[in-house]
Amino acid sequence: MADSVSAASVSASLAGIESRIADLRQQLREGGALAEGGADLVQGFRKDTRDVAFDNAANARDIGILIRNDSRLNVVSSLARGDAVDVFRFRVATAGALRLGQIGDAAVRVQILTRAGVLVADNAPSAEARHQARFAAFRSEPPPDGIEPGSNRIETGEYVLRISRIEGGAGATEAKPRNYAIQLGMGGYRRDFDTVERNRAPGAAPDPGAPAGLAGFTQMMTDGLAGLQRAAVGAGDAFAAIAAALFGAGRR
Question: Does residue 179 surpass a pLDDT of 70?
Fold first, then answer.
């Protein structure tokens, strides 16, 4: 009987998640965030990663290869209590104008560095003006007034995406979890690559491990979608569509 109740509960949870995804997609279409007919033409891929105990460039999780008019890279996770930083890596295969989207908690610092550790862009108020300007250029197409044309261009090579808390902001204390979703694109796209990272359990060994069964995976989907729905409200740009795609059951 207990197994039957558990199975029924999981099925009900999945049905609820699918309903919420459908509602969010409809809201985004009505708001113009999803291009008409575009979603059905995109091939989607998803992989799940597990946060590590000590993040650095050496153990950064790979989120994919960015190719102009071909691929788009998405990563969604959170800085858990006591988690100071998350580090990911990606490769740019074709030089061009980078588009960076960000939703989630405001007090999240996003930095792009070269594989050698040279800072390219930074959204923190304490960052140098040139790095803040480069980040603003990546966020807007065309770049905002006052920012040098071409500042949104990125060259081929390997890069690091570093996520942390903004010093002095509402999320500066590591006692508070901070949700985030980042999207990297260049022109159009035919393939959508989603990386969903799970937090390590307190006191857990650094080994990646595997999700703890269907019930645990269902809870992860529920928590993640709820956070992204809150973050997407009022986002007002096309990047909000990531919230409708990242936790979809049965990728298109």
Answer: yes
DSSP reduced 3-state for 8? helix
What letter represents residue 188's amino acid? Answer: G
Please determine, looking at this structure, whether the domain spanning 2-245 carries the CATH number 2.60.120.380.
yes
Angle (CA) 60-65-158 rounded to 5° is 55
The 3-state DSSP class for residue 135 equals: helix
Indicate the domain borders of the chain.
2-245
Beta-carbon contacts of 163 under 8 Å, excluding residues fewer than 6 positions away, are 77, 79, 85, 86, 87, 88, 108, 109, 110, 111, 180, 182
Percentage of residues of the chain with pLDDT beyond 90: 40
Query: pTM above the 0.85 mark?
Result: no
